[in-house]
Design a protein that fits this description.
Blueprint: H1 10-19, H2 37-49, E1 74-80, H3 85-89, H4 98-107, E2 111-115, H5 122-131, H6 135-138, E3 144-147, E4 152-155, E5 160-161, E6 193-198, H7 205-210, E7 216-219, H8 222-233, E8 243-248, H9 250-258, H10 262-282, H11 285-288, E9 291-297, E10 302-303, E11 309-311, H12 316-319, E12 327-329, E13 332-335, H13 342-351, E14 358-361, H14 362-367, H15 380-384, E15 387-390, E16 396-398, E17 414-415, H16 421-424, E18 425-432, H17 433-437
Parallel strand pairs: 1-8, 1-9, 6-7, 6-8, 11-16
Antiparallel strand pairs: 2-18, 3-4, 4-5, 9-18, 10-17, 12-13, 13-15, 14-15
Helix pairs in contact: 2-5, 4-10, 8-10, 9-10
Length: 441
């Protein structure tokens, strides 16, 4: 984890150190009790309604250490994919221009650390944020996951079999959000609302579930994202959305291609906050009044090491013990043993711990709260299998099905999904549009 910036509040630096402490073997773990991404959803609702709607599954609001947003007329929640606490902490030290330094000087004093969910991956974290529940409750635990109802492992973002196919192949025209999510989104608890995300995601099954209850507004670039946000906030108070959810994925994209490079992150985040500050400055004081702005991330990233990537499909001994291919994440793989081979699989996995692998039983994962408190999804154990394997930092377990022979797929230089501090800790930048209008950037 990067050295904390002196621009961060001392309380924020201390909290980051506490959240980074090992609580799950050698790793930190999510703090679902008020210090995690899904707690932001409950806080947004409390700000708008006075109290979170009654629910046995929704997590509590953020702990009292975080800035209060009660009484807001509109809450804008902006999730930046791959926005880790480490890259936020490095904004000041890696600023090379006057503009970058100015943005860092405004953003860092508004920043607090959170943990994301486990696995530290987009599909799990986004659904946790939009429902205010932990992954064990909404049931989407990883980029790929075995779904008994479909009888196969699905790519949870694309709703296709994990081996490929056109987007939404597994969803069908009759897909309903409840087919994927057993819990309601926060958009069902207040109105009017708005979801701002990339145009290409419009109409997909995952988007329908993720933003169920919110009108969809697609954008093409940062400029029209800012335009649509300004238009929504510029409406008369009675027509303005009370809850606006925005999503930006390009920081994640450049991290996967180039690795989690601080220089790229500083430039990307500078552009994003400049755009948001420009929206605030263009609004009138009346339009800005009562608009809270919460920016967070779904996960951080670490550098991936191709020398530590383990191809499961090239190990006949391991394949002979598995009932189905691995699911979850390359950095957090769930394995199910063939009938009668569970003990053999465990011996195999324990023997690899000398290579830096860390193995837990799925029972330990569920009962230990790594996926959040109950109630849990009724299929949770069946979806996950028998064991969770965490490879060492930089390492990965991956599977390529038969027929995919030839050159390896493009190697991703940035990785996430696991429990390292850089993957698990994300920021919460808490400010208002009134404050941003005075940033004078």
């Amino acid at each position: 984890m990067s050295s904390p910036s002196p621009l961060l509040l001392p309380e924020a630096r201390d909290l980051a150190a506490r959240l980074a402490e090992p609580r799950w073997g050698p790793y930190p773990r999510p703090h679902y009790d008020g210090f995690s991404v899904p707690n932001v959803a409950a806080t947004a609702l409390k700000s708008l309604t006075g109290a979170p709607p009654p629910s046995g599954s929704r997590l509590p609001p953020l702990a009292s250490v975080y800035p209060r947003t009660e009484g807001a007329q509109t809450v804008v929640v902006f999730l930046v994919d791959s926005f880790g606490w480490n890259v936020l902490s490095g904004l000041e030290s890696h600023a090379r221009t006057t503009t970058e330094r100015a943005v860092a000087s405004k953003v860092l004093p508004c920043a607090w650390p959170l943990t994301t969910v486990f696995p530290s991956t987009t599909s799990s974290a986004l659904l946790s944020l939009s429902t205010g529940t932990a992954p064990g409750t909404h049931g989407v635990v990883g980029y790929t996951e075995y779904f008994p109802a479909w009888g196969t492992i699905l790519n949870t973002l694309k709703m296709t079999p994990s081996w490929g196919g056109p987007r939404d192949l597994a969803a069908g025209q009759g897909f309903r959000p409840s087919d994927l999510l057993p819990v309601p989104t926060v958009f069902r608890a207040t109105s009017p609302t708005l979801a701002l995300t990339k145009e290409e995601f419009g109409g997909t099954a995952f988007t329908k579930a993720l933003y169920d209850g919110a009108p969809f507004q697609g954008y093409i670039s940062l400029s029209d994202l800012a335009m649509h946000l300004g238009t929504a906030l510029g409406k008369p108070a009675a027509q303005r959305p009370r809850l606006i959810w925005a999503y930006w994925d390009l920081l994640d994209a450049v991290h996967h291609v180039h690795g989690p490079t601080q220089e790229l992150a500083t430039r990307e985040l500078t552009h994003l906050f400049l755009a948001m500050a420009s929206v605030a400055s263009a609004l009138t004081p009346e339009q800005r009044e009562g608009v809270s702005f919460l920016v967070t991330g779904d996960h951080g990233q670490i550098a991936a090491d191709p020398a530590r990537a383990f191809p499961v499909h090239e190990d006949p001994a391991l394949l002979s013990l598995l009932r189905r291919p691995p699911s979850g994440e390359r950095r957090a793989a769930f394995l199910e043993a063939r009938e009668g081979r569970r003990d053999d699989l465990e011996r195999y996995l324990r023997a690899r711990e000398t290579d830096g692998w860390v193995t837990f039983t799925v029972r330990e994962v569920i009962e230990g709260g790594l996926l959040g408190p109950g109630p849990h999804h009724p299929e949770l154990a069946d979806r996950l299998g028998d064991f969770l394997v965490l490879p060492p930092p930089g390492g990965a377990l991956y599977y390529r099905p038969p027929g995919r022979r030839g050159p390896e797929e493009h190697f991703l230089r940035g990785a996430h999904g696991g429990l390292t501090v850089d993957e698990l800790l994300v920021p919460l930048v808490s400010t208002t549009f009134d404050q941003m209008a005075g940033w004078d950037l």
